[in-house]
TrEMBL record:
A GO molecular-function descriptor: protein transmembrane transporter activity
Any one Gene Ontology cellular component term annotated for this protein: plasma membrane
Membrane topology value: Single-pass membrane protein
Source species of the chain: Tepidibacter thalassicus DSM 15285
PROSITE patterns the record matches: SECE_SEC61G (PS01067)
Protein name per Swiss-Prot or TrEMBL: Protein translocase subunit SecE
Function: Essential subunit of the Sec protein translocation channel SecYEG. Clamps together the 2 halves of SecY. May contact the channel plug during translocation.
Keywords recorded for this protein, A-Z: Cell membrane, Membrane, Protein transport, Translocation, Transmembrane, Transmembrane helix, Transport
Domain of life: Bacteria
GO-annotated biological processes: intracellular protein transmembrane transport; protein secretion; protein targeting; protein transport by the Sec complex
Endpoints of the signal sequence: none
Length: 76
């Protein structure tokens, strides 16, 4: 039985100790996370937005190209 299934079984039985343990472990894991500072967050946001813009342009160009060639083929 998987870990998620085991957790659900414990919750169904009303085992409050497992719920408390889950939240303690979650809190411990969140302390290990490297949270970006403002400078890093701004940099990462810029990278994501730039990547989205470039991918949007790429998909638009491919779509326009395919549309152009389909019009050529269908108008014959």
């Amino acid at each position: 039985m998987g870990m998620a299934a085991q957790t659900n079984v414990n919750v169904k039985k009303g085992n409050s100790k497992s719920i408390i343990k889950f939240f303690r472990e979650t809190k411990g894991e969140l302390k290990k996370v490297h949270w970006p500072n403002k400078k890093e967050l701004t940099k990462y946001t810029g990278v994501v937005l730039t990547t989205c813009l470039l991918m949007t342009m790429l998909v638009w160009m491919i779509d326009s190209g395919i549309g152009f060639f389909l019009k050529l083929i269908l108008n014959r």
